[in-house]
Structure to design on (226 residues):
């Protein structure tokens, strides 16, 4: 089978990463969680005082971007973890604090320019599954397979709540709902690389689909191309 680029975009908590990881494993492709990359930058901003009263100190963060080294490593359980300057920060970047600011960091042009360049470099040899908000529209507009994932609001909120509760975080349904609504608005209304469904993307509404059904559906699309 020839190797291709699979670009997966969609709203928060639609299961993009879960599907992408499973797909990459089955195809023996590389998997890149671009959302995690923006979360790492957000964590760095929080740790270094570039967040003040809900606002991001853009100038301070931009001047420090050269100090941020993002990579992915496989842990003892065989799962991919995001690292910041060589240290795993996977659990920290999934918390509510990072979630509350990541969309605001993601709109900064210099941040996007840096990370998009890194993502494009990662996909030069193809054989990659990448998920995020602007993968099909900006990072890999020529990707052979483009997916746009969505699900009902209630389903998305519950999924995110379950994930955070599983990771030991104490949050409420309403708090998660508010956070997801805010992220949706920022992601779809930002001036630079907003979340959009490209004309050639296949829509996957997984509100009532199991993980196995989603994977089977996508594999059919991959086989048709390869």
């Amino acid at each position: 089978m020839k190797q291709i680029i699979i670009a997966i975009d969609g709203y928060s908590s639609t299961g993009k990463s879960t599907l992408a990881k499973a797909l990459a494993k089955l195809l023996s492709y590389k998997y890149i969680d671009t959302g995690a990359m923006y979360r790492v930058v957000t964590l760095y901003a929080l740790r270094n005082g570039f967040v003040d009263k809900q606002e991001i100190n853009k100038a301070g963060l931009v001047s420090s971007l050269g100090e941020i080294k993002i990579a992915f490593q496989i842990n003892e359980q065989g799962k991919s973890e995001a690292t910041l300057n060589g240290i795993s920060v996977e659990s920290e970047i999934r918390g509510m604090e990072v979630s509350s600011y990541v969309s605001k960091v993601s709109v900064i042009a210099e941040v996007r320019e840096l990370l998009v360049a890194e993502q494009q470099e990662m996909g030069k040899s193809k054989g990659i599954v990448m998920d995020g908000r602007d993968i099909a529209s900006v990072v890999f507009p020529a990707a052979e397979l483009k997916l746009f994932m969505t699900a009902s609001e209630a389903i998305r909120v519950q999924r995110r709540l379950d994930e955070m509760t599983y990771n030991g975080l104490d949050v409420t349904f309403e708090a998660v709902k508010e956070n997801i609504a805010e992220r949706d608005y920022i992601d779809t209304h930002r001036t630079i690389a907003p979340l959009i469904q490209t004309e050639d993307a296949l829509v996957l509404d997984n509100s009532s689909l199991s993980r196995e059904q989603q994977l089977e559906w996508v594999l059919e699309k991959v086989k048709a191309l390869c």
Notes: DSSP finds ten helices and ten strands in the chain. The mean pLDDT is 93. The longest helix spans residues 173-189. Residues 31 and 159 are 21 Å apart (CA to CA).
